[in-house]
Structures are given as C-alpha cells and as structure tokens.
C-alpha cells in the first residue's frame, strides 16, 4: 500500500512539473499584467468599476477585517505545529485567500457581475472585435467602447456555483503543508479560475461542450505530453493565466480592482485568439517574447 501511495504521489508530482513547465512556456501569465496596463491607459474601461467601487470596497474591507479578527489567530496556532516560524506568514496568506474567496462569492453574485461583463465586452470592442460582441448584445453607434454597449441578448457568466466553494474547502488543508502546500493550493485554484475567465468568450462563440473540446484539441501543441486536458479540466496556458490572476485577487481590498483588470486581460487574450494572433502555444508570440526577455 505504501509503495502504491508513493507511486501515485510521484505521478502527481510529475504532472504538476509538466503543467508548470507548459504554463510558463505559454506566457499566458502575462495577460493579467497586460490587463492592468491596458485598463490604466483606457479610461473608458473605468466606468463599470467606478459604478461599483464604493459598495465593493466596503464589502471587501468588512470581510477582510472580520476574517483577520476572528480566524487569523486560531489558524496561525494550528499551523504553528506544522510550519513553525512560517506559521504567521502562511496563516496571513490563508486568511487573505479565504477573504478573497468570500468576497468573490458575494461580489460577483450580488454586486459586480454585470460590471465585469461590460468590462469584458468593452475591451473586445476597443480591440476591434465588435462582431464577436454583437452576437451577445446590442451595439450602439458612436461613443467610447463602454458607451457602445447596448442591451444584453445573452445572459453572461454562471452565478457562483456551490461546488466551487466545496472544491475550495477541499483544497484548504494543503495550506498546512509548509511552503509547498500553499504553492499547490494557489496552483489548484488557478487551474479552475483560468478557464472560468473565458466563460464569456465561449458563450459569445456559442460553443457547446464538444466545440470547447475541439478548441483544446486544435491547440494541443500548447499542452504537455504527460497531462491530458479538456476545457473542463484545465489547460496549461489557462492555468498560467489563472495562477497569476488568483495571486492578484488574493490581495485584500485591491482584489476588486484586480477582478476588473484580470477581466480585461482575459478579453485581450480572447481578442488575440479571435484575430488569429496566437500560435501553437495558444498565446501571442509577442507576449511570450516579453516573458523570455524578462527571464
């Protein structure tokens, strides 16, 4: 039995190693960074955020303070037995993640869902992919990209699914493993958050499950040999994007801002896909060149 456990653990470690290599090679982790730069330089995209900023920041601040007051010390005390001097930092990271998750649940369900959709669609319009957006909403003449957005034809994005919270709770104990556990936790969260970032894109494309699978097969060179991917099970490049986006959205209070910049980044990536500006790795070659220069 012990040998079997060791074998499975080794296999999983190899899969994570392969996934990490493929994710880094894709350069998709730079799209959230591009999203920040593009959002800052295009003031029209600020409108959806501005309309939700005060209530969202109030919600985020309240959740974060409450979580640190009531859960930080108990979790730090438990982690002290497994992580020693690293317990304080690991517990803080864990509470930040928990706060971010709760904020995501409440804000995206009750406050900012429509604003994120407007941001995603507005970015596509700004990138001259209006024909794609027009399949999901009415487009007005004139004005800035956000002003052009008319009535929604298709209701976008699924509401927060209970299974996502259940999955999060199942991953949570990983944080009790020093360093490695926290890294694995972020990666696993990113693997699920990455594909979710393109939910609106897939909806605008009107792709069903089989078409999404074909999309993955058409870009199979972007994935490692050891790991088999479907859109429902994660892509190497979506994981790369998802991990970067997850880390940004783990920052207390500022997570509201990064929810919007990550949406912009996802839309920029979708625009590159739509225009055929991606290669066998599923991302823009120029973006990957930037990543290589940074290395």
Largest sheet: 2 strands, antiparallel
Low-confidence parts lasting 5 or more residues at pLDDT below 50? 219-235
SS content category: mainly alpha
Radius of gyration: 20 Å
Average of the residue pLDDT scores: 76
Describe what this molecule looks like in 3D:
- The chain has helices at 2-26, 31-41, 46-83, 87-110, 113-126, 130-133, 162-171, 180-196, 199-204, 209-218, 236-249, 255-274, 285-294; strands at 137-139, 149-152.
- It is mainly alpha-helical and 295 residues long.
- Helix 2 crosses helix 12 (255-274) and helix 11 (236-249) packs antiparallel against helix 12.
- It is globular.
Annotate the secondary structure layout.
Elements: H1 2-26, H2 31-41, H3 46-83, H4 87-110, H5 113-126, H6 130-133, E1 137-139, E2 149-152, H7 162-171, H8 180-196, H9 199-204, H10 209-218, H11 236-249, H12 255-274, H13 285-294
